[in-house]
Each structure stands twice: as structure tokens, then as C-alpha cells.
């Protein structure tokens, strides 16, 4: 029925447009292919485009003609749509879009499962700390490493979900983030909130397998996780706050093995992670400078400006120095200091 009505509408549109353009219908529909599905030939579309521009016909009419046309859009139009975010760019399909069920894909994208670098950046300080806490001459506790690896995956996903829920109005104005599931409307805020609860529930299951000291220490990190997305609205140093959040595992890994903290070792380790985060996330923030200025949010990239290289050099030096101090206080030998 819908197809029949569309064909009738197409035939009527042909007569109206041909009379408006002073074109004979025969010029629009060749005798070799009189099918109504062929009426929106590039010939008609070309002349109607010129006609609409000359007579200042609103663009929705032209869009309507293009949308119900059965002729594929040109390569130039496809490229323009990709640049505008209306079509996925070449090579942008990830394993999520290929292997996961359609209903699950938005949640997987929300947790950034196809971009594992965030999980690694969260997990590495945990692994460093667990390795430092191992007894001399012993290998690290692999069970503990596996638990923290899963915890890093879940907490990173939860952090991304919180970030997208709080920043959904900002994300729509930033080119890099406007297609995220919540910002684009693929998921509602309520669905995102339910997914956040699911991730935190699984994370609680991992936290309960640690000692009591680590449970309290781990739960306290949620304050940082929930408040970090708001920092870019108030300070030019959200990257430093991200460092405090992302490197909490440097404290938690040690306490999970030892049952307490040794400030002489874990504080320099934690500080080195914060400086390290300032290095990579300041570089990362430079790609959003123009959008950040437009939206009104802050970052170290905007704060440092042309002095970024000098600041990065300072942070890198502080990172290596803190790592060296950590190794010296842990008395793990000259080999560590050389490397």
C-alpha cells in the first residue's frame, strides 16, 4: 500500500515539477524506462536544484526529492555526509558493529569497549602497585592482577557512562563526541543510568573479594569518578583531576596485597601516575580546543596554549623522578633505577 501511494505521489510530483521547470515529461522519463521509480533522474534533480536556487525554494523541498529518490547519492554527497557525521566514516566500524547483537551495540559503545586504551591506562597503575607489593624474589599475584584487570574494565566503562550522561548537552556541540549513544539519542538518559547501575553492581562483586581496608579505599574512589566530568566546567586543570581518578589503583593495588598503605612507596607511585596522566591527556585535549572554546569548558590545553611543550617536559620529568623515588624507597635495586 505504501509503495503504491509513493508511486502515485511520484507521478504527481513529476507533472508538477515538469510544468514548473517547463520541461516535458518525456525529457524526464525516457521511453526506455518509463517506470515511476525512475522519475527522479539526475536530470530532473539537477534542473530542480537550479530552479530552487533561482527561486529561493526552501531546502526541505529539495531534501524531500533526494530522500524519496531511488537513485544513490553521488560520491561527493556521500563524502559530505560522512564529514557531517550523517554517515559513518570509512574504517570506523569496530568489532562491536560486526559481532555484537544490534540491541547491545549502543551499550558497548557507551562503555568504549572498542577503545581499550582507557582500560589499559586505568589498569597499569594497579599492576605496578601489585608488582611492587610482591614479596622479594616472588612473581606478582596473578589472581589479584586478573581481578584488577576486570575492575579496570568495569570502572572505566562506568566512568565513560557517567561522563556521557553529565555531558550529553555539551557532547552534541563537539564534533568528536556528537555521535555518542546518549548525545545522539540512541540511548535515553534512563537507559544509560540503568547500564551504569549494572556496571557498578559488577564492580561491587570484585571489590567484595578484597580485604576490608581495600573495600573502603576502593569505594572512596567513586567520589572522584562521579565528580570528574564536572571539573572541566570549573577549572583549567581537569586533566590533573583525571590523574587523581585514573591512578587510584596505585594505592588500591598495594593495599589489596598488603592490607595497608606504605606512604613512602605508594605516594610517589601515585604522584608519578598523576604527572603521567597530565602528559597524555593534555596532548589529547588539544584536539578539542576549538570546540571547548565554543562550548565554554576548560582544559590544560587551553591553559598552557603555546607553552604546552614546556609544561609537558616538566610533567614528564616529574613522572620519571617520582617513579625513581618510589623504586628507591621500595629498595628494589639499581636495575629498576637504570630502566
TrEMBL record:
GO terms for cellular component: mitochondrial inner membrane. The chain crosses the membrane at residues 186-207, 240-257, 263-284. It is a multi-pass membrane protein. It is found in: Membrane; Mitochondrion inner membrane. Pathway: Cofactor biosynthesis; ubiquinone biosynthesis. CDD domains: PT_UbiA_COQ2. One of its GO terms (molecular function) is 4-hydroxybenzoate geranyltransferase activity. The keyword Transmembrane helix applies. GO terms for biological process: isoprenoid biosynthetic process; ubiquinone biosynthetic process. Its EC number is 2.5.1.39. Pfam families: UbiA (PF01040). Keywords: Isoprene biosynthesis, Membrane, Mitochondrion, Mitochondrion inner membrane, Transferase, Transmembrane, Transmembrane helix, Ubiquinone biosynthesis. Its cofactor is Mg(2+). The keyword Zinc-finger does not apply. InterPro entries: HB_polyprenyltransferase-like, Prenyltransferase, UbiA_prenyltransferase, UbiA_prenylTrfase_CS, UbiA_sf. It catalyses: an all-trans-polyprenyl diphosphate + 4-hydroxybenzoate = a 4-hydroxy-3-(all-trans-polyprenyl)benzoate + diphosphate; 4-hydroxybenzoate + (2E)-geranyl diphosphate = 3-geranyl-4-hydroxybenzoate + diphosphate. It is an enzyme of class 2 (transferase). Belongs to the UbiA prenyltransferase family. Catalyzes the prenylation of para-hydroxybenzoate (PHB) with an all-trans polyprenyl group. Mediates the second step in the final reaction sequence of coenzyme Q (CoQ) biosynthesis, which is the condensation of the polyisoprenoid side chain with PHB, generating the first membrane-bound Q intermediate. NCBIfam families: ubiA_proteo. This is 4-hydroxybenzoate polyprenyltransferase, mitochondrial. It comes from Populus alba x Populus x berolinensis.
Amino acid at each position: 500500500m505504501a509503495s503504491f501511494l509513493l508511486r502515485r505521489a511520484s507521478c504527481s510530483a513529476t507533472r508538477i515539477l515538469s510544468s514548473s521547470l517547463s520541461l516535458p515529461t518525456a525529457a524526464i522519463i525516457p521511453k526506455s524506462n518509463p517506470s515511476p521509480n525512475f522519475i527522479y533522474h539526475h536530470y530532473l534533480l539537477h534542473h530542480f536544484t537550479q530552479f530552487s536556487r533561482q527561486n529561493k525554494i526552501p531546502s526541505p523541498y529539495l531534501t524531500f526529492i533526494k530522500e524519496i529518490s531511488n537513485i544513490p547519492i553521488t560520491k561527493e554527497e556521500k563524502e559530505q555526509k560522512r564529514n557531517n557525521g550523517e554517515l559513518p566514516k570509512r574504517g570506523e566500524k569496530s568489532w562491536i558493529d560486526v559481532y555484537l547483537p544490534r540491541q547491545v551495540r549502543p551499550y558497548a559503545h557507551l562503555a568504549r569497549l572498542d577503545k581499550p586504551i582507557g582500560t589499559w591506562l586505568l589498569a597499569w597503575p594497579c599492576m605496578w602497585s601489585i608488582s611492587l607489593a610482591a614479596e622479594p624474589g616472588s612473581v606478582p599475584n596473578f589472581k589479584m592482577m586478573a581481578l584488577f584487570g576486570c575492575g579496570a574494565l568495569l570502572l572505566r566503562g562506568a566512568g565513560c557512562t557517567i561522563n556521557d550522561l553529565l555531558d550529553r548537552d555539551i557532547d552534541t556541540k563537539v564534533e568528536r563526541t556528537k555521535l555518542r549513544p546518549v548525545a545522539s539519542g540512541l540511548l535515553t538518559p534512563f537507559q544509560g543510568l540503568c547500564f551504569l547501575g549494572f556496571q557498578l553492581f559488577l564492580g561491587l562483586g570484585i571489590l567484595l573479594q578484597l580485604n576490608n581496608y581495600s573495600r573502603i579505599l576502593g569505594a572512596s574512589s567513586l567520589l572522584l569518578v562521579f565528580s570528574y566530568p564536572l571539573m572541566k566546567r570549573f577549572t583549567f586543570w581537569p586533566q590533573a583531576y583525571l590523574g587523581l581518578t585514573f591512578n587510584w589503583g596505585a594505592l588500591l593495588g598495594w593495599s589489596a596485597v598488603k592490607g595497608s598503605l606504605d606512604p613512602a612507596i605508594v605516594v610517589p607511585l601515585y604522584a608519578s601516575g598523576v604527572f603521567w596522566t597530565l602528559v597524555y591527556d593534555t596532548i589529547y585535549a588539544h584536539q578539542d580546543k576549538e570546540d571547548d572554546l565554543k562550548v565554554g569548558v576548560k582544559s590544560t590545553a587551553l591553559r598552557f596554549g603555546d607553552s604546552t611543550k614546556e609544561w609537558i617536559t616538566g610533567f614528564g620529568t616529574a613522572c620519571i623522578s617520582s617513579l625513581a623515588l618510589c623504586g628507591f624507597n621500595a629498595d628494589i635495586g639499581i636495575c629498576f633505577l637504570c630502566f
